[in-house]
């Protein structure tokens, strides 16, 4: 049962407004979202839930549930993204954040990195004035102004190029993204990785803001307030890349152990804020110190912000990240000051 997963692409095509559709048939949108990203394994889902989803998509359970062949990951060399919620190649990723939480900086950095790696980048320019959007265009190969124009441009490029496509969430609501993906599917083009960003911040207050996603990155207001950038929440972000029987076992094991540490660290931070660090027992003090260092390590300088931070951008491979995170959790960085680990690349950098 571990190698089963939902056919997210089918759900996206058949039920683009899954949030409202799920509520109307008595399903919790959060549950559906967790099934799509793999946070809840299909084998643990209620039959009623799966049957309701199949009914919404007007398909059979055999069509809805597929064998979980390994989903290919795009390695961004951004530590927190690759470790906790990897980017699914050819999938759709949603960025959940209020305005000003750094989501457009993360997108600009990804466009820069992926363009360097040979991806063709496309931006569907949103209507109206939105602060930070112009910064995205610096690393975009093609700018379009409508779904129709986007479809034509991607068709002209053909299915041989790996494409990165960025669009505003409003095109999900209107059905434009569904229309685009259906058109490309009909033409046999499957090489488009789509980023959906909400420029208004409305998605923060919804349980399932974009419909079916392979990856969801949730930005954390507490991390933003403490300048822990990129402020993508390890605890709130999920990806289908780490789902199923064929996932990388070392990656999964390190990720789960790191999540456990960060979850407890968050709890201890609240206790320290009230009673002071001296109130923590010795065993919890070690957990607090290592969680503090892990959180600092997960910050990272970006290439697109070098002019502002005066720090050179850093790339860290997934294998380096896994090694470093294990070192921190095992106590190898206990003697290092927290400030030494902020905005660095690898531990050896």
UniProtKB/TrEMBL annotation:
One of its GO terms (cellular component) is proton-transporting ATP synthase complex. InterPro entries: ATP-synt_VA_C, ATPase_alpha/beta_chains, ATPase_F1/V1_b/a_C, Cro/C1-type_HTH, P-loop_NTPase. GO terms for molecular function: ATP binding; hydrolase activity; proton-transporting ATP synthase activity, rotational mechanism. Its main location: membrane. Residues 6-66 form the HTH cro/C1-type domain. Residues 246-308 form the ATP synthase A/B type C-terminal domain. It is found in: Membrane. The keyword Transport applies. Its EC number is 3.6.3.14. Keywords: ATP synthesis, ATP-binding, CF(1), Hydrolase, Ion transport, Membrane, Nucleotide-binding, Translocase, Transport. The keyword Membrane applies. Belongs to the ATPase alpha/beta chains family. This is ATP synthase subunit beta. It comes from Bhargavaea cecembensis DSE10.
């Amino acid at each position: 049962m571990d190698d089963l997963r939902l056919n997210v692409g089918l759900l996206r095509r058949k039920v683009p407004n899954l949030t409202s559709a799920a509520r109307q048939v008595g399903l919790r949108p959060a549950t559906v979202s967790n099934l799509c990203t793999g946070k809840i394994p299909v084998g643990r889902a209620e039959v009623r839930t799966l049957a309701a989803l199949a009914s919404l998509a007007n398909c059979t359970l055999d069509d809805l549930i597929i064998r979980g062949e390994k989903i290919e990951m795009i390695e961004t060399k951004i530590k927190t993204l690759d470790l906790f919620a990897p980017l699914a190649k050819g999938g759709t990723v949603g960025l959940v954040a209020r305005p000003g939480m750094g989501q457009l900086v993360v997108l600009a950095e990804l466009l820069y990195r992926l363009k360097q790696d040979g991806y063709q980048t496309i931006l569907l320019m949103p209507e109206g004035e939105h602060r930070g959007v112009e910064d995205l265009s610096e690393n975009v190969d093609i700018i379009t102004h409508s779904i129709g124009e986007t479809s034509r441009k991607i068709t002209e490029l053909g299915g041989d190029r790996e494409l990165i496509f960025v669009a505003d969430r409003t095109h999900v609501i209107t059905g434009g993204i569904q229309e685009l993906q259906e058109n490309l599917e009909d033409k046999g083009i499957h090489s488009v990785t789509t980023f959906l960003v909400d420029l208004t911040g409305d998605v923060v207050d919804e349980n399932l803001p974009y419909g079916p996603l392979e990856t969801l990155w949730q930005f954390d207001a507490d991390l933003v307030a403490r300048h822990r950038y990129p402020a993508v929440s390890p605890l709130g972000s999920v990806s289908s890349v780490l789902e199923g029987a064929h996932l990388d076992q070392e990656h999964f094991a390190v990720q789960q152990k790191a999540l456990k540490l960060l979850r407890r660290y968050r709890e201890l931070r609240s206790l320290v804020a009230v009673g002071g660090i001296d109130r923590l027992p010795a065993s919890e003090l070690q957990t607090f110190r290592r969680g503090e260092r892990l959180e600092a390590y997960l910050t990272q300088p970006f290439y697109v912000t070098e002019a502002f931070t005066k720090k050179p951008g850093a790339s860290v491979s997934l294998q380096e990240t896994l090694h470093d995170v294990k070192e921190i959790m095992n106590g190898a960085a206990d003697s290092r000051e927290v400030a030494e680990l902020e905005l660095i690349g690898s531990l050896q950098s």
